[in-house]
Design goal:
The chain has 14 helices and 10 strands. With about 300 residues, the protein is α/β, with parallel strands linked by helices. It is globular.
Length: about 300
């Protein structure tokens, strides 16, 4: 079940093959097809969208767990799905091949405008949740070395050990980007791990700093310190529903349903839900249902 957003981005070029759809509700209302990528957070948010639409009387056909952004976009363009959750940074860089934009509102405006022109699709309201790149450390190490920001960490790196996934070492927005924007960032030791294991290295004392995605459930569960990107290296990755304009025109209440849940999906909420799925092995549909019930949307 555990997939990261970046690992899904690496799964490019796969053949479009939609899995059999599943349905939970049988409301008899208009049918809407909801897709998602194939990692934990996308599955949970896809379920939140699906169940919020069901709460508004739609009959939802689920095409969750599709795969990479390319597969989801192909399904949307071919009319095989009506909507799916997408990240502004992913759309900007991996779909539109645009230079990174650090301002969240400008990034959202850029992708919304481009999608309407190029893909006959639009973006509904974004959530405050921002699943971007990050570096974390423990409270003890943060206190010992006196750093809570990337600027403070940069000159201290030669004293510290880094745990990261392999692609972080070479990506333009990984170590090379940190060195370009902040200077420094030449760690005493760097070891690569699978996505979930880098936190174990940090917590077991085998590393002092770990690469992270900012909505990983391990951050809150282990009271880790997420270092502030005070020079804005990383673009925003706010999530929002991407919807075919034809579907939205036929059923404008899609926007009513999904814009109501958008402000509820915060970093803290995403971390908690991701942790429930990845660590506690909860079903994404059940996690989404609890989230909506907590906010009186079921």
């Amino acid at each position: 079940m555990t997939f990261t957003r970046k690992s899904a981005l690496a799964a490019m070029g796969a053949t479009l093959l939609l899995p059999a759809c599943g349905g939970r509700g049988a409301s008899g209302g208009p049918a809407i097809r909801v897709g998602s990528k194939n990692f934990t957070e996308a599955l949970v948010i896809g379920e939140i969208y699906a169940q919020a639409l069901e709460a508004h009387g739609f009959t939802v056909q689920r095409h969750l767990n599709l795969g990479s952004v390319q597969i989801c976009m192909a399904a949307l363009e071919h009319g095989d799905i009506d909507l799916y959750p997408e990240y502004t940074g992913t759309a900007l860089i991996d779909v539109l091949h645009h230079a990174p934009i650090s301002d969240p509102a400008a990034a959202y405006a850029a992708v919304k405008n481009a999608y309407q022109k190029q893909f006959h699709a639009t973006w509904l309201n974004p959530s405050p949740m921002n699943d971007s790149q990050g570096l974390v450390t423990t409270q003890a190490i943060s206190t010992k070395y006196h750093f809570t920001t990337l600027s403070q960490l940069a000159p201290l790196a030669p004293q510290l050990r880094l745990a990261a996934i392999a692609e972080f070492l070479g990506r333009p927005d990984g170590i090379p980007g940190l060195q370009r924007v902040y200077g420094g960032f030449h760690f005493k030791d760097v070891k690569t791990y699978d996505a979930g294991l880098k936190y174990d290295a940090l917590l077991h004392g085998d590393a002092d700093v770990a690469q992270a995605f900012t909505t990983d459930g391990q951050i809150g569960a282990n009271n880790l310190v997420l270092l502030a990107d005070d020079k804005h290296l990383w673009p925003p990755y706010n999530v929002a529903p991407v919807v075919r304009l034809d579907a939205l025109k036929a059923h404008p209440q899609i926007a009513t349903a999904l814009n109501a849940v958008a402000p509820l999906i915060t970093d803290a909420a995403a971390r908690s839900m991701n942790y429930a799925v990845d660590h506690n092995k909860s079903d994404p549909a059940e996690v989404a249902a609890r989230f909506l019930k907590e906010h009186a949307i079921h």
